[in-house]
Each structure stands twice: as C-alpha cells, then as structure tokens.
Design goal:
By secondary structure, the protein is α+β, with helices and mostly antiparallel strands. It contains three helices and seven strands.
C-alpha cells in the first residue's frame, strides 16, 4: 500500500534549495516513506521543543534528516513532511518549532 506524502510549503522551499544529488536522495527516502510510514524514529521533547507526534529519518550518510508526522495516525491518510535539512545539532528542530508556532 502506498501513502500520500506531502511537503508543507516551507519544506518545499527547503527541498528547492538543495542541489540535484541531494534531491535524488530525498526523493528515494520519500518513496520509501510512502511505503513504510513508520520507518522513522519517533520524536518527543528535543532541546525543549515539543515534537511529540513527529518522526525523523536520516539520509545521505546521516548528514541530513527529514522530519515528518502522520495525519490521522490510527489509519494513515497523509504523511506530512515539515522539514528537510542538515543534521547540524538541533537546527532542524528549531526550524520545525518556528513553523509550528506560526
């Protein structure tokens, strides 16, 4: 079964900023995610940012991560990507926090 994966508008901007080789890796990970939505590791409170309900997956030799959540987790309807970015410390989590608090 294949699930619908969508990128919020800010995550689309993250994606557009990446070079072609990284985009290919992102596309592969999104394809994998559409088949296996629970491949990511659940997040909770990270660096005093409440990311309960979100998951993270790594790619590009763990240099980047995708942060996403499942819409209607009991019966997945949509996998919503909230951020794609470099794995530098808690940078991506701070970005997600800003997006959540808009």
């Amino acid at each position: 079964m294949s699930y619908k994966v969508v990128l919020i508008s800010e995550a689309q901007k993250d994606y557009k900023k990446m070079d072609g080789s990284i985009k290919k890796l992102v596309n592969r990970k999104i394809d994998e995610l559409s088949e296996k939505p629970y491949i990511g590791k659940q997040l909770g409170n990270k660096f005093n940012i409440d990311l309960t309900g979100f998951f993270k997956i790594y790619f590009a030799k763990k240099s980047y991560r995708i942060v996403y959540r499942l819409i209607t987790p009991s019966r997945i309807e949509i996998i919503e990507i909230w951020g794609i970015g470099n794995r530098n410390k808690e940078e991506i989590y701070k970005i997600i926090d800003k997006r959540l608090n808009k």
